[in-house]
């Protein structure tokens, strides 16, 4: 089922708070290209509105996000054309599809540059997380200045154990989890709950699931009461400190290593869906999000 509005936008408190909703609950808010384009437009709308001081990123349904949409019909169509129509190049006298190159450009735009831009948005941003935030779901919340979670929230990145990659494209794991915890979670695919995420400093506040929406707005109101320039000076100062410690360069390096994984799979599995997926990947979307699918499947 295609969504006319995969992202919705509203304002609260006389326009001082903007709330952006991921609106694909039937796919556990799996991220299609269309969703990411609409999300970027929504963030841009909030940034351009001088009345808005705080932006809440929330999600409809049981779970915040099951990650990249790799299997729904519309997501596969968005990544078209099929393998036979890919750009090609010649090497050692042979012609082969330039799958890895296409993947690299698409992921640089949709997953890396988008997320970096949202991290530096000229507003204070709060991610409101319930249920599961899996793999690319982490990218969305990590781009926000603050993260609040319901008491049933869980966080994980299964890309390494399922797909042979080092982690998702926005490689903030060592900064958010700490180096050793990042290695543990990526090597095992295990999740952490809201309490552990709070102890690690990734989550700012934990609220009961039934109160999450109201408590997040209350939290946003406290921040919206601060003068806009003061809030932005805090944001810029902290982000600059992280960058001085190598955050942005580490992100860039992590992205390139991720793409090497795609290049490896593309070289050996040219008939897979155009994300460099191995042909024997199991369906890890136990939450009911779209099934991983080969492009050649009916």
Number of domains: 1
CATH homologous superfamily placement: 2-enoyl-CoA Hydratase, Chain A, domain 1
Helix content: 40-55%
The end-to-end span amounts to 16 Å
Q: What pattern of helices and strands is seen along the backbone?
A: EEHEHEEHEEHEEHHHEHEHHH
- What is the CATH first-level class name? Alpha Beta
Q: Strand order within the widest sheet?
A: 1-2-3-6-8-11
Low-pLDDT segments: 81-86, 88-92, 271-298
Described by the principal axes of the CA atoms, the overall outline is globular
What is the typical, i.e. mean, pLDDT?
Answer: 82
CATH architecture: Alpha-Beta Complex
Which fold name corresponds to the CATH topology?
2-enoyl-CoA Hydratase, Chain A, domain 1
Given helix and strand content, the structural type is alpha/beta
Strand count: 11
Output the number of helix runs: 11
Largest sheet: 6 strands, mixed
Structural notes for this entry:
With 298 residues, the chain is α/β, with parallel strands linked by helices. It contains 11 helices and 11 strands. The protein has helices at 33-48, 73-78, 99-119, 136-142, 159-163, 173-177, 179-188, 194-200, 212-224, 228-244, 247-268; strands at 7-12, 17-22, 54-59, 88-91, 94-97, 124-129, 132-134, 146-150, 154-156, 192-193, 205-207. It is globular. The model is unreliable at 81-86, 88-92 and 271-298 (pLDDT under 50).
């Amino acid at each position: 089922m295609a969504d006319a509005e995969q992202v919705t936008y509203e304002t609260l408190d006389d326009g001082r708070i903007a709330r952006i909703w991921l609106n694909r609950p039937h796919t556990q808010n799996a991220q299609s290209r269309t969703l990411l384009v609409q999300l970027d437009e929504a963030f841009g709308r909030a940034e351009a509105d001088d009345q808005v001081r705080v932006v809440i990123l929330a999600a409809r349904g049981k779970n915040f996000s099951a990650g990249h949409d790799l299997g729904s019909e519309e997501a596969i169509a968005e990544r078209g054309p099929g393998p036979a129509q890919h750009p090609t190049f010649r090497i050692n006298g042979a012609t082969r599809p330039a799958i890895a190159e296409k993947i690299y450009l698409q992921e640089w735009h949709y997953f890396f540059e988008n997320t970096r831009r949202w991290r530096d948005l000229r507003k204070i941003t709060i991610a409101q997380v319930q249920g599961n935030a899996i793999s690319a779901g982490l990218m969305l919340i990590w781009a926000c200045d603050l993260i609040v979670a319901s008491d049933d929230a869980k966080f994980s990145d299964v890309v390494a154990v399922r797909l042979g990659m080092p982690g998702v494209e926005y490689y903030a794991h060592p900064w958010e989890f700490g180096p050793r915890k990042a290695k543990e979670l990526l090597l095992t695919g295990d999740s952490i709950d809201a309490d552990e995420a709070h102890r690690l400093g990734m989550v700012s506040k934990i609220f009961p699931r039934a109160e999450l929406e109201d408590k997040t707005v209350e939290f946003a109101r406290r921040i919206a009461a601060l003068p806009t320039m003061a809030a932005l000076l805090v944001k810029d100062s902290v982000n600059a400190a992280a960058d001085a410690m190598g955050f942005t360069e580490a992100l860039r390096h992590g992205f390139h290593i991720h793409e090497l994984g795609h290049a490896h799979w593309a070289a050996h599995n040219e008939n897979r869906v155009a994300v460099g997926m191995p042909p024997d990947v199991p369906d890890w979307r136990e939450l009911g999000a779209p099934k991983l699918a080969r492009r050649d499947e009916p």
